[in-house]
Batch of 4 targets.
Target 1
Amino acid sequence: MASTTPRRNTRKTCGPSSTSGYVGVDLAALPKNQTGACTLSDGEYSCTTLRSDEEILQYIRDANPAVIAFDAPLTLPRGRCCFDDACCGTRKIRECDRMLISRGHRVFPPGFSFMKQLTLRGVALRKILEAEGYRLIEVHPRTSMRILGHADFGASPRTEHERDACAAALVAKLYDEGLAEELGDDEGVIVIPKAPMK
């Protein structure tokens, strides 16, 4: 299984040669539900609500971001190719999930019943975008905002999903600036902000 460890300088010639800004995606498990999306560029947050995979992919391609941050698991637990226990065992949680939980953060691992469809959708989108050369990270906006304490997203976010997408985009920017921490291993990596200096 491919790692979600972000790669640098791998953009292919699938669009404009220069990247601009950051995209955060608060992915819904099913296309019929709302996916929040945000572009952060020049300090401004711009949000929208999307549904289908093609809408999400086109939004990202149009934005051509330096980093994309998904609020969704982007890898399966080690040894799994699907969520059929008869096929590949019962492992439901990744090391990166354990690391966040050990720090007192509440996360729902990929193998939990209500997370399975979201994880499979996130993995599928990751494979498409990585094949096009985009840099992706997995984030957890609620944890990130607990660490940061506060962020001003302006008037753009209209829904909770769009607000989480803003937080994801902010973490993408912090990651790109070396102000974030990567938790996990080749099974999967979750990126969180470094704690602000007191």
Target 2
Amino acid sequence: MSKELNFIKENPMGFLATTDESGKPRVRGWGIMIDEENRIVFGTSNKKKVFRQLKANPHAEWIAMAKDYSTLRVSGDVVFEEDMQTKLNIIEKTPVIKKLYTGREDELEIFYLENIEYDWFEMKMEFQKK
């Protein structure tokens, strides 16, 4: 597994950035996962504004920070998963999604990124004693 995917597995909570209908940025906290194909996978409801934003402008960026203040920014093209069995597998394997979407499977939208670009920032904090 790549350095980037390992970082994401260790730091799955971050922030997802999209743009709204007027082109203004929108950022919200977002947890992600890595699937069996090593894709970075997101989930949302098709009732939410973020779903409509991603349909209108299918480009997104997600960022996470580790305890040492290293950050990884991941950007790419959004691809929605159409296969219901894949969605059901994710529901079954992910406790939070299972709690939210059991009985509402038709609302769940799974998406992943293609044409990914990674951008690292590693802060080397060295403090001198006075």
Target 3
Amino acid sequence: MAILFPGLHNDAVRKRHVRWAQALVDDGLTFDLLVDEGREEAAALVRDALDGAGPDPAGPDPAERPSAAAAFTLEPQDTGLVVRDAAGTLAGVLVLTAVSYDNGTALFVRALATAPGFRSRGIATVLLGLAPQVLGQAGLSTRALLTGACPESLTGFVHRAGFVVLEHGDEPPFAFSGIEDGLLATSATDPGDRCWFFKEVA
């Protein structure tokens, strides 16, 4: 296993998350579970938001379009979180699939996107930090492995969000009963440009 970036100290990541989350709430943004009536809107945001010119290097939550995003749809088993402004405009979305593996439960990040008009405010980072709440709302333990794959250009962002990031093409030290290929095939990350990331959350 070749590590591109090691994980950061949880306290530093948590403090940054709380600071950005509070600023977003103060600005009137709300975070909620992804519900049935919002699924197509969320998928459309993933397709549209990842169709931008590239990341904002000064912002905490850059987004870049992988080619796989153009055909992105939500699967029946997907869950996630959305964030909206005071007018109800969808500002960001995190799409997750919960899977079981040898050590417990894992949340696989199928997509993470911020609408262009809301970038550089920490929305994507806060969504990742809130991911365990999806399990809590389902009455399950919030302790899980949060993982996914991202383009190499976004590994710095994922690292700052507290994840261990592996080098391009390297395989993670865990397996999901052979369904990894299926999860990757339906994610919003281009198959030829993937770096695994992961961390334990609670």
Target 4
Amino acid sequence: MRRVKMLQHWREQQQRQFDTIQQEYGQINSQHQAHQQRLELLESLSGEYCIEGGQQASALMLKGIGRFRYQLDNLTNLQRHELAMSAVELRTTNERLVQQHCQVRMGEKIIEKRQNQIALKQERQQQKILDELSANKFYRQRLT
């Protein structure tokens, strides 16, 4: 029984670690989604600031739009990089989450197996006692 308590304590520790990683995964996932939204916004802005054929624009305006689009392209590239880094972090955390879930399940199975062994052992001991009592009763009845 002492082993089962130790195993249960270990399993509880593993469950707490799983819960922690799960919370971390949720935070990273929300950050990843925010990175995706920012990238979509930057990409949509890029399309809004282009001069179509037939429109008249001054050289100063063209120069300003060109600088703005250059900075926007740089920001878009940085955001793509952030999104890629976020995706890697999300995958890594997901792998940790899966591994920790396996640890929790393994703990549950070990505890269940140990409890089944203890129950089987107790059943056998009880059956042995009942068999001895029956044998004693049978012998006493034969003697009388």
